[in-house]
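Q: Sequence in, structure out?
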Amino acid sequence: MNLIIEQGNTTTKVAVYHQRQLKASYIYKEFKCELLTELFERFPLKQGILSSVIEVQEFLPVCLREKLDKFIFLDEKTPLPIKVGYETPHTLGHDRLAAAVGGHTLQPNRNLLIIDAGTAITYDVVEASGLYPGGNISPGMTTRFRALHDYTQKLPLVAEQEEIPLIAANTTAAIRAGVVNGIVFEMDGYINELRLKHPDLFVFLTGGHSFYLRGRLKNCIFADINLVLTGLNRILEYNVEN
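A: Exactly. Output:
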């Protein structure tokens, strides 16, 4: 069985795969050594991969190397099943890279746009040939709400809710409508522009706000909350195979 660990800006996601089937998944606010022990007691884990966009605690790779037959610490030198055309691969977020691989795994030989709506919103392209040419980064929903509050004296800190007007009649609603509608218009804009170049474009939406945003977009998309985990599992498999 494969152990997949993805450390993001706010949480750590852990998944167990058997071949390409997700068997279990967990989300932790804080990932501690004893949690690893519990996982190894619960599952016959033989191979694993660690991806992180934050500073990694020292115990984690040491423990994983000791317990696993094969361990991959994802970085810019890790062999991949796609070709990376990014000019600065050492600065490319591992979550972006894994999502690109995940999309290519699920929809091979397709032109893809992968939107990850988390702390930041990323827009990444994978061409049908398997080339990853790059993508863009934008502030995420919570980041936008926080910035409006932190960088002004009077605007309140608010969060998303289900009903969002096109034009708001009070300040709290105006912040919600401005942030949520702004993100929706931004996403639809990227999709529309990229479809001028790739009419067959397949769009994945992933990340913590993916299901909140899915029904608000005018374009047809496929929401997959586990896309990064799928990509990490494929990267692990690819390295084991080769």
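The mean pLDDT is 93.
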